Amino acid sequence: MSEISEKKHSIVSFFALAYLSTWAFWIPFVIFGPSSTAIASNPDLRGSPFMLLQVLGNFGPAIAAVLLWIFSGKRTELRDAFRRLLPHPASLIWYIVVLLLPVGMLLPGLIVYALLGGNIAGFSILGLLLLFVSAIFISGLGEEMGWRGYALTRLQMTKSPLISSLIVGAFWGLWHLPIICWYSHQTGLLFLVEFGLYVLVLTAFSVIFTWVYNATDRSLWLLVLMHAAFTTSGNTIAAFTQPVAGGTWVPYIVGVLSAVVAAVFVVALNRTRMCSRQCAA
Q1: How many CA atoms lie within 13 A of 253 on its CB side?
Q2: Nearest-angstrom CA–CA distance, 76 and 74
Q3: What torsion do the CA atoms of 228, 148, 252, 192 make, to the nearest 10 degrees?
Q4: What percent of the chain has a predicted confidence (pLDDT) above 90?
Q5: Average pLDDT along the chain
Q6: Contact between 14 and 151 (Cβ < 8 Å)
Q7: Distances from the Cα of 175 to the Cαs of 16, 209, 272, in angstroms?
Q8: pTM for the whole thing?
Q9: Which residue from 102, 103, 146, 250 lies 20 to 30 Å from 258 (Cα-Cα)?
Q10: CB neighbours of 106 closer than 8 A, spacing ≥ 6?
Q11: Where are the domains of the chain?
């Protein structure tokens, strides 16, 4: 098997194993766990043991990456990935970017929601901080070693950062299908539209993540923080602006478009680096 074929095979294996490792938890959770509607009316249901399945599913990408590194004999890459999870001595501006940019991209949807008469009185700073800390250990550590540490790194060996970002972003978005089925209140065509917009926003964020990843010497630590900020702001804002809550699709679409515009802006400012094929082995 040639080196290029081996890389393609490893990428396919990663996506398949990531989906399997996650959906093995998430599908039983969606079927047997309390519904999102039931939890909204009775918060005590968050203590259901089935909720643990949702948490465990987040670690699927990391599990897939670690297993592939071990069984393919790439233990040096595994050690390197763990090293890149350590706090990175990047300049302050990068910490500002990873912590505030996700909020800035999603905030316009919330503003539109408020202008349309939506109630945003449920915001809690303490709640946001607690969610952010938990997101670091669950969605951040559980996903970034896989999506960026393994998949993006390998894809960029043969493809441009932009194309690599789009591939990872699409699979990242589709990977969430069981959870979106659990969370969404839409059915039929409206569900497909909502899910399509969700995949689009994650693909846009994937471009932003790649830009940060490459510009900070492939720091997984900064991406863990950025992922946590994205999860915290995204989940909080979505709770207010999703179509069923806002009574309109406008805030939801505004949030998606804001992320897409930010991604296009990043590509435009870094056209050479984002669109040039990488030659790293």
Answers
A1: 5
A2: 5
A3: -130
A4: 62
A5: 89
A6: yes
A7: 10, 17, 30
A8: 0.91
A9: 146
A10: 233, 234, 237, 255, 258, 259
A11: 3-275
**Residues 172-195: pLDDT tens digits?**
999 999 999 998 888 889 899 999
Residues sharing a CB contact under 8 Å with residue 210, sequence separation 6 or more, in sequence order: 148, 152, 161, 162, 164, 165, 168, 274
Residue environment code for 156-167, b if the CB has 16+ CB neighbours within 10 A, otherwise e = bbbbbbbebbbb
Burial-class residue 12 by CB neighbours within 10 Å (0-12, 13-18, 19+): exposed
pLDDT at position 252 is: 86
